[in-house]
């Protein structure tokens, strides 16, 4: 195992996962940044614009659920490669769409790759990083998403006013080169290869979904994480989808200045995720998850009710730091909640079932904006952040399974065998 965990291999895996999630984030936030232009070109209102984001989240949910399962069956690296190709090519094709309906269909397909890539990349990294540094590293990996937001905002500021929204989507084909690099330079985790080899020797194939629901403890944690993920993503993607439009429409700031505001917000998000990951390794995953969720819940109504021309930059910067804090911890917290042989299916399933549940958030805010304002819609998301913080805080213990603990995984396998014997 030592050769697998060598510094050189660890660095290669980290770079690949970081860049993978960065381009993932770029593709995702392009929709939010180009939303005002899309509304004008396709002549649609806030509710219809929200539906584009809703179908994007549905696609991401579908991709995450099946991506995790496929990664357990066929390999983390292999599936990460194909999913990156899917979302890169799919997002590029969006630039050729001519109607609102075409845009939604192609966006849904590309979002399948985005959702799968996120699930697989975070799981792959969790299986390479030692426990004592896991949340620091995964918090940094999560910051790659925000760095992708930042890069997309800078590109939009330079390209969109002069050339329109379509070239931004054409750029998305570049990550195909990264997919080729990952396929040939990143090895599959040793633990996954050993489990596959053991299953071949036993001559049996497991049904990961059946395993999850057969054990009462695993079933309970799966359901709790599914509910938590629903509230967390309802809030997170609600804010992420509508924040650029809120800055333009509600705050009355022109597009070029808006991209500058977003650069500040996303830079703060990068720092917030890295610092939160570091703190979580010292003070606990659960503690930082709760602090991040409750702090954001308090700040969202403050941004809506008390913003002024003099304080809005400071408020948005603080929001950027806080609203991604739970995400810095979420990957580690979830990956340590399930044993290795079902980790991809369980984490991908619970997280992305939550994503499907959260898919109505962009539409809901758009609907509220039709009658009130985008700001009011964003403020109501504080309720979801409170619930997302309290459920794991009350019911989910941290560090239940360690991806590096062979003995613990062996005990899990023995328990599963005992369950099979009892049911014969």
From TrEMBL:
Transmembrane segments: 12-35, 47-67, 79-98, 104-125, 137-160, 166-184, 221-239, 259-280, 287-306, 312-329, 350-368, 374-396
Record-level GO cellular component terms: plasma membrane
PROSITE patterns on file: MFS, SUGAR_TRANSPORT_1, SUGAR_TRANSPORT_2
Pfam families: MFS_1 (PF07690)
GO molecular function terms listed in the Swiss-Prot or TrEMBL record: carboxylic acid transmembrane transporter activity
Major facilitator superfamily (MFS) profile domain residues: 13-400
Alphabetized UniProt keyword annotations: Membrane, Transmembrane, Transmembrane helix, Transport
Membrane topology note: Multi-pass membrane protein
Compartment(s) where it occurs, according to its Swiss-Prot or TrEMBL record: Cell membrane
PANTHER family: CARBOXYLIC ACID TRANSPORTER PROTEIN HOMOLOG
Protein name: MFS transporter, AAHS family, cis,cis-muconate transporter
Protein species of origin: Peribacillus simplex
